[in-house]
Design brief:
- The protein contains 11 helices and 12 strands.
- It is of the alpha+beta class.
- It has 2 domains: about 100 residues, PAS domain (Beta-Lactamase); about 200 residues, Heat Shock Protein 90 (2-Layer Sandwich), CATH 3.30.565.10.
- A 5-stranded antiparallel β-sheet has the order 2-1-5-4-3, sandwiched between helices.
């Protein structure tokens, strides 16, 4: 019982010390000094009265440099009108909570902050200034931006996947004679595309996609089409970035599909040759078929569905042009691509 009473007396004593004005001021001062947030006080004339170490770290000015100067010292030029609004609201006794805005550091760089402004009153209750607590929200902003980027990328990839599947379905439907054959062909095409496209998708463990080599991209796509036919490749050692994999795959799928139907990979064909070379900031790819081939539309001067699709894909996603040249000895398809769009560098 005596020990319990002694413990209660000690707690009451400690509580009394904390409530003493001098000790309370010291306690609050320690909190302000140790805070990671910038804590600033100012008068209604906007002149800075106090500036804690957190403010020094956030804005780059020492207390000696900041105290006595206007708080607009840290305002970007396009935010100067905010201070007049703050003062007006403070005079009305309002408190401003968690306002997201931007301030300027001593070195001129901008920093996004979350700002809370509270009125400061004297012993008579008159408002004589304000206290400001500013928190750096750069990391939060970056996290939100990354999340938005990932969502946008996901929407783009999902939409693109449906577009690719639709394009492949249209291509396959033109070369089969039964539903079962269509199912088989589509299964082969989609499996090959999925294998290649997997290199363009982020790893679940957090690793960034690495893309794939151009030669691997081409051979992976041709595998379900070639059937033992001659395929000659002469391409440079070149890495295709993740963003370029799907559009390039769609173009090569179209070319391979037509080659199987009535071109170099058909029964009457003598195979295909693919040559690529770099010219400055361009990548030129020639797809050559040596056989009596013809355009899908049946008219040499008219672009068919596949040609239009390739032209749109190359133009919109790879910064280039796509063309086909038919002659009595076969066909040459040319892809003139932006090298940066293909490699990502």
């Amino acid at each position: 019982m005596r020990d319990k009473y002694a413990a209660m007396t000690m707690k009451q004593s400690e509580s009394s010390e904390l409530q003493a004005p001098e000790s309370l001021q010291q306690h609050l001062a320690a909190i302000v000094e140790g805070s990671d947030d910038a804590i600033i006080t100012k008068g209604l004339d906007s002149v800075i009265r106090s500036w804690n170490p957190g403010a020094e770290r956030l804005f780059g000015y020492s207390a000696e440099e900041a105290i006595g100067r206007s708080i607009t010292l840290i305002f970007p030029d396009d935010r100067m009108d905010e201070e007049a609004g703050f003062i007006a609201r403070l005079r009305r006794g309002e408190r401003i909570s968690n306002l997201e805005t931007v301030r300027k550091r001593k070195d001129g760089t901008l920093v996004p902050i979350s700002l809370t402004v509270s009125p400061v009153r004297n012993a008579n209750g008159k408002i004589i200034g304000a206290s400001k607590i500013a928190r750096d929200i750069t990391l939060q902003r970056q996290a939100v931006e990354r999340q938005q980027l990932l969502l946008s990328e996901m929407r783009h990839r999902v939409g693109n996947s449906f577009a690719v599947a639709g394009g492949l379905l249209g291509i396959a439907a033109r070369q089969v004679e039964s539903v079962q054959e269509l199912v088989t062909v589509m299964r082969q095409r989609l499996h090959a595309l999925a294998s290649v496209h997997a290199r363009a998708v982020d790893d679940p463990a957090g690793a960034r996609p690495e893309g794939t080599a151009l030669v691997h991209l081409i051979t992976s796509i041709l595998e379900p089409f070639s059937g033992g036919a001659s395929v000659q490749l002469d391409v440079p050692e070149l890495d295709v970035c993740p963003a370029a994999i799907t559009p390039l795959s769609l173009v090569f799928f179209e070319l391979a599909t037509n080659a199987v139907k009535y071109g170099g990979l058909s029964e009457a064909g003598d195979g295909i040759a693919i040559q690529a070379e770099k010219h400055g900031n361009r990548l030129i790819v020639h797809w050559t078929e040596a056989c009596a081939t013809k355009p899908a539309s049946g008219e040499p001067g008219k672009a068919g569905f596949g040609t239009r699709m390739c032209q749109n894909t190359v133009g919109s996603s790879l910064g280039g042009k796509f063309s086909r040249d038919f002659n009595p000895n076969g066909m040459i398809a040319t892809l003139n691509l932006d090298l940066t769009a293909v490699t990502g560098v």
